[in-house]
Amino acid sequence: MRRVRWGLIGCGDIARRRVAPALRDLPGCELVAVSRARADLAESFAGEFGARRWYADWRQLIADAEVEAVYVATPVHLHAEQTLVAAEAGKHVLCEKPMAMSVAECDRMIAACEANGVRLGVAYYRRFYPVVERIKAVLSSGEIGRPVVAQVNAFERFDPDPSHPRRWLVERRLSGGGPMFDFGCHRLEVLINLFGRVEEVRSLVGNVVFDREVEDTASALLHFQGGPQAVLCVTHAAREPQDTLHVFGSEGSIHAGTLNGGEVRMSTADGERLEVLTPHTNLHQPLIDDFARAVLGGRDPRVNGLVGREVARVEAEIYGGAQG
Q: pLDDT tens for residues 207-259?
């Protein structure tokens, strides 16, 4: 079986827990090389996941003739540069979310990949959740009538000390923003997937508890073209975690109390029912599998650069139009 030969740029938490195992285990993938700034950690990571080579310099990984696709798993401020270099070297690119620091960077990434004939994907893996696919099917069927309001809460307590390996997430020049940029982007992708283009945005972005460069809390009111309104609330400051998605329609409603868990309750005039659609144990694996199949089949991945750009466009409006 033909396999895509991968290089992994960045060996942090997500790479260790999800990305590297998928690149190692999927039948259509082969993990050839990894890179990390600390050579000793790159070497041990390569040994752990069976990569044949390791590099301290990511540019050397991209120059590796055996590598044909790269997974960019670095902080967001590096995504654009690394994607551009990879594309110019003829490598396909699957990039962690958020895609880039700005829409302009997204545009350059898309243009570089198109000019060099390589595929570009972005790691919005919730596109592959069975529960999200089911909700989309129910909406398309008309079972709950016309969608009116959607509500999403995404709360993750995050107060890192100065030595925390993910401290960069609260430094604006490295992260681009706070929870709205970091994981709010995932929920924006879900909403765009379900309802289409966002045509109007209003927002509040600020600090409620923590004194830091980026917001600890943000809320966005979104109006979808020809569709519903949605409210997205995210925070690093609340103690109780939340991962909810509720859709209220003219004839019924859909309720996912924990979107990552896979349980969804449907409510219509005919009554209520509970469906359980558990995601893959490795949340990244279906995304990476689709990207590898896209490369091998000569098609675009389901989550391509245009998807990443649209999320970035809405993020820019949220931050640009924020009050308070």
A: 999 999 999 999 999 999 999 999 999 999 999 999 999 999 999 999 999 99
Print the SS3 string covering the chain: CCCEEEEEECCCHHHHHHHHHHHHHCCCEEEEEEECCCHHHHHHHHHHHCCCEEECCHHHHHHCCCCCEEEECCCHHHHHHHHHHHHHCCCEEEECCCCCCCHHHHHHHHHHHHHCCCCEEECCHHHHCHHHHHHHHHHHHCCCCCEEEEEEEEECCCCCCCCCCCHHHHCHHHHCCCHHHHCHHHHHHHHHHHHCCEEEEEEEEECCCCCCCCCCEEEEEEEECCCCEEEEEEECCCCCCEEEEEEEECCEEEEECECCCCEEEEEECCEEEEEECCCCCCCCHHHHHHHHHHHHHCCCCCCEHHHHHHHHHHHHHHHHCEEC
Residue showing tokens 């790479």: 15
28-52 pLDDT tens trace? 999 999 999 999 999 999 999 999 9
Euclidean distance between CA atoms 125 and 283, whole angstroms: 7
Strand partners, 136: none
- Structure tokens, 223: 């109006």
Amino acid identity for residue 90 in this structure: G
Has residue 65 got a pLDDT over 60?
yes
* pLDDT(324) > 50: no
C-alpha to C-alpha distance for 117 and 114, rounded to whole angstroms: 5
**Domains, the chain, ranges and CATH?**
4-123+283-303 (3.40.50.720), 130-278 (3.30.360.10)
User: Taking 90 as the threshold, does the pLDDT of residue 322 lie above it?
Assistant: no
Structure tokens at 306: 């245009």
Q: Is the pTM of this model over 0.90?
A: yes
